[in-house]
Amino acid sequence: MKIRPQALAKRTAMPPMQAxxxxxxxxxxxxxxxxxxRRQGGVTLIEVLIALVLGLVLLGAVSSAYLANRQTFRQVxxxxxxxxxxxTTFELLGRELREAGGxxxxxxxxxxxxxxxxxxPPWWTDWGRGGLEGFEGGNDQNPPQELPAALPQIDNTPNxxxxxxxxGTDALIIWSGSILPPVSIVVHNANATPPNFQxxxxxxxxxxxxxxxxxxxxxxxxxxxxxxDAANRTVDHGVLNPPQQPGxxxxxxxLPNCPVAGPVAGPVAGTVRTFAGGGxxxxxxxxxxxxGHNGRGGTSLYRMVLDSERTGSGNNTxxxxxxxxxxxxxxxxxxxxxxxxxxxxGALPAAYIDSDADSDPTENNLQPIxxxxxxxxxxxxxxxxxDPVGTDGAPINRTLPFVVGIRTRLP
Length: 411
What we know:
alpha+beta, five-stranded antiparallel sheet, 3 helices
């Protein structure tokens, strides 16, 4: 069949609706698809800047919350340390003060001190003070009271020495025979050579050179151990075998005390005093509490304690009494002490007084404190946080007072 040219032209002609679309697309090239008319997506500069500002605002809010929480945590942590230091002070200082002047055998026993004395006896031998003595830090009206010469003195120089006493702070010395655990006496061989105590426990922990107290229900005596025999569980209270420092002025443990008129070269005669079995022998406790410079730019609560230093071994062991400092608690800036001193008739006063105050203001002349009468001590330490966590950017100070009654003098 023959096709006419007119019919072929009609068949190959585009539909009328596709002609405009082809005109819009334009001519296509071989091997390259036509471009899409859809626009490409993106972020403008203004949108980026807005996102950055919002991110910075959010980051600042999170950072502020973090810093506030961190500051609060530091404050809580530092104040918790302050409270812990206060509890430790109460436990350690309060424990010693409650036992001031006590003995393992009871209260208010006559006490002989036969440790060798001299013109200036060691501070720890001064048992006659009644178990404690306070020293005022001084104020505008009264000068400071220094500790005995062998103890740290007040240092108000620009570069104070480590462990020296801080100006304006009080101090306290405590003597006791009942703080450390004693050992029971089996028998006192007062006439043996050398005289000795046989003890119930072989592991008594007492050594040559230790300053100890022996007591029964009638009397107490302070002496230095001159020798010991572990096999027989004995400790000696001789004078010359071996020589000790400072040693004993005599072998007998009777009253009175060693003389203080001058150095004692040898034994001083006395009455033989035999302590009853069932009594006790225990290490004497003597300590001086004060606020001292710690050498790190701060201040701490210190104590000087009585100890002993031994040389040799076996039967050739000798020892001497020494004192050594202990840093008890750091970041303590002040210590104030006041004392409750009853009148001669036993009536309690209306207020606590300082160690340099008149203990009887009804009298015309000043009456210094009779330390044997003190019944209680009010202790006011001031603690400082280790870090500057206050709202003003400085450390926080906390003054936490407490009162300790002396057990042997309470009614």
